Amino acid sequence: MFITRECDYAVRVIRALAGKERLSVSEICEIEDITGPFAYKILKKLQKAGIVNGYRGVHGGYSLHRKPSQLTLYDVYYAIDPDMFIIECLNPDRPCSRHGADGKPCLVHLELQDIQTRFWELLRRKTLEQILSGE
Predict the structure, then answer these.
(1) pTM of this prediction?
(2) Alpha carbon of 51 to those of 27, 63, 75, 113, 117: distances in Å?
(3) Largest CA distance in the chain
(4) Cα angle at 93 between 82 and 4, to 5 degrees?
(5) DSSP count for the chain of H helices, then E strands
(6) Per-residue pLDDT reduced to its tens digit, 11-62
(7) What is the DSSP string of 41-59?
(8) Which domains does the chain have, with CATH numbers?
C-alpha cells in the first residue's frame, strides 16, 4: 500500500483552503497544480466526510468545514481512501487466506497488524495546522 496521489492532493486542497474564506475549484487547481476533474473528485469525498463545505452558484466554491487544528493526515487520508491498509489481509472485509484452521492469524499477520496500528498513530500525531506551520 502506498499513500495515493489522490490522498496527497487532498492534503494540497486543504492547504489551499487553509486561512481562506472560500475558493473556487479553478483557484484551488491553480494554487496547488491539480487538474479540475481530479480536484472535483477529491472535493466531493472531502465534502462527504464533513471536511469541506461546498457552495453553489455564481459565488460558489469550497471552504473548510473543519479547521486545520481539528484535522490530521489520518482524517484526510481516511476520507479519500478508507481501505488504507499496508497489506490486503489486514482489511477485515477481505479475510486472510493464511489464517489457521482455528481462525488465528499467522505470526506475520500479527506483526503487520502492529505496524498498521503504529502507522495510523503516526498519521494522527500532529494536526494539519502543526504540519503546515512547520511545528
Answers:
(1) 0.86
(2) 18, 9, 9, 28, 23
(3) 61
(4) 30
(5) 6, 2
(6) 999 999 998 999 999 999 999 999 999 999 999 999 999 999 999 988 889 9
(7) HHHHHHHHTTSEEEE-STT
(8) 5-132 (1.10.10.10)
